[in-house]
Amino acid sequence: MIAHLAAALLALTAARGPSFVAVIDPGHGGEQEGAVSPRGDREKELTLQIARRVAARLKRTGAKAVLTRTADASVPLAARAALANAIRADLFVSIHLNSMPSAEARRTSHGIETYFLSADASDASATAVAARENADRLAGEPELDPSDPVAAILSDLEDTAALQQSSRLAYAVQERLVAALGAEDRGVKQAPFYVLAGARMPAVLLEVGFISHPAEGDRLRSAAYQEQVAGAIVEGIAAYRAQTLRASR
């Protein structure tokens, strides 16, 4: 199904000529609910709402925006980046909501974190976030094939360039999110997120707030606040694109 969708989208992109293409990934979905707020709001539902708003804003700027899921459906983590690769997207943004396990931490932890891929996590907190998000990996998802040395060398070279750009994208989006929302800046971090591992373009994972925090969780369910989040993400993407254009001259 993913392959057929990717082929159709690629044909549509080619027919309309070159354009900026962003793949927006609403975290979780289907059986993978993600975190739950004190009110009972589910991460998978709020991330889809925010992702739709991001896609709508991107389209208004003339970009193409493709969602990895448009409904409450389970999508393998590997298939999300694979879709972005298949349609030759310019960037990949995975949207998530953070959460803390203990009652005390749920009351006190709030703010925004942005991640890009690394084999090693920045700190213990990043390790915990990656472990939680990687738990969505579905049974039977294939491992990367390490048996082709030529492909591995090419992959390493491409990944190095993509990771450098991912870092720039991460800082641009984090800065805009913190400024627009007045949220605590928990920083740009690195961690081994499975959903980002296969992406052949700049890719970031956003934790746009703590669904487990009573006040922040309430804000995240608000349509007006979601629009602010979406606007800041799109502004961050625009800033990254402008920076990339200047660097290429």
Structural commentary:
With 249 residues, the protein is of the alpha/beta class. The protein has nine helices and six strands, in the order αβαβαβαβααβαβαα. The chain has helices at 2-16, 43-60, 77-86, 103-108, 124-134, 149-181, 194-197, 214-220, 223-248, and strands at residues 21-26, 64-67, 91-98, 112-117, 185-191, 203-210. Strands 2-1-3-6-4-5 form a six-stranded mixed sheet, sandwiched between helices. The longest helix is centred in the middle third of the chain and has 33 residues, at 149-181. It is globular and about 50 Å long.
Notable traits:
9 helices, 16% strand
Secondary structure elements and pairings:
Blueprint: H1 2-16, E1 21-26, H2 43-60, E2 64-67, H3 77-86, E3 91-98, H4 103-108, E4 112-117, H5 124-134, H6 149-181, E5 185-191, H7 194-197, E6 203-210, H8 214-220, H9 223-248
Parallel strand pairs: 1-2, 1-3, 3-6, 4-5
Antiparallel strand pairs: 4-6
Helix pairs in contact: 1-3, 2-9, 6-9
